[in-house]
Task: inverse folding
């Protein structure tokens, strides 16, 4: 079920089993990685890394520069192929040969570059590469504009009219478009690479609200960030990489900033 589909209505007779059903669904991660490794010649960028992303949960991916975060993202998004290990969706192994294969599998990655086209409208950027057509060849702008507005309303994103070119928008608004594009594509797994790095306080708050909307819609979110305050505000778990290896996987409600920093830098710091 995509994020645009209405939530199923359970009959009253099922209310007793609702919690156990939710627990059962969460027992199978939307995405899992086991023993992932990536080497470039004699240099091991990743070594035996495991990861689980669950529906309706935000997992923060943390680590210092050179820890392996970008390499892990590239493997999960189909940009690069692992030297070892496997990736599974809903418990079934899958090979992500290309970014297109990852998108087809329901994995959307929003990189820092965002990949928006300045002179195209908000709606056109949302539908980039999958524009609706009529009669097999005519661009259906009316449908594109309507569906773009629907997904923005669902995510509670406030933007100018969807016909406005992206070049007039702020950094936070552009980030919102990039995330909404992932939702419009029906992605169940959304990877966000430093989504607030270049934003001010007000726009950062809006992006964090958008991440909460993704979680509330049932998406499994992987948030890469150096901003510890943002991480503790929206993430449920934190996975920490150091020198290409996973050194921690903790629930943030049971941790602290000091503990996370110790995992990131290592030693007794």
Result:
């Amino acid at each position: 079920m995509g994020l645009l589909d209405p939530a199923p209505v359970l009959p009253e007779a099922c209310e007793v089993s609702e919690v156990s059903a939710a627990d059962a669904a969460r027992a199978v991660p939307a995405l899992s990685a086991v023993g992932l490794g990536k080497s470039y010649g004699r240099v091991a960028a990743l070594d035996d890394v495991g990861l689980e992303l669950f529906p309706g949960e935000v997992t923060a991916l943390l680590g210092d520069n050179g820890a392996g975060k970008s390499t892990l993202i590239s493997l999960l998004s189909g940009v690069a192929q692992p030297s070892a290990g496997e990736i599974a969706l809903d418990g079934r192994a899958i090979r992500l040969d290309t970014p297109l294969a990852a998108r087809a599998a329901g994995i959307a990655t929003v990189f820092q570059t965002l990949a928006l086209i300045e002179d195209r409208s908000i709606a056109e950027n949302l539908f980039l590469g999958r524009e609706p057509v009529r009669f097999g060849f005519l661009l259906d702008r009316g449908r594109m504009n309507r569906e773009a507005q629907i997904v923005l309303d669902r995510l509670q994103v406030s933007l100018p009219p969807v016909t406005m070119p992206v070049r007039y928008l702020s950094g936070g608004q552009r980030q919102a478009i990039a995330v909404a594009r992932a939702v419009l594509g029906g992605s169940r797994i959304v990877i966000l690479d430093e989504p607030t790095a270049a934003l001010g306080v007000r726009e950062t708050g809006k992006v964090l609200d958008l991440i909460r909307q993704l979680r509330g819609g049932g998406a499994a979110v992987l948030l890469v960030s150096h901003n510890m305050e943002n991480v503790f505000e929206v993430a449920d778990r934190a996975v920490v990489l150091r020198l290409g290896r996973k050194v921690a996987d903790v629930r943030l409600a049971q941790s602290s900033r000091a503990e996370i920093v110790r995992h990131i830098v290592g030693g007794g710091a």
About this structure: The radius of gyration is 19 Å. Residues 1-22 have pLDDT under 50 and may be disordered. The longest strand covers residues 43-53.
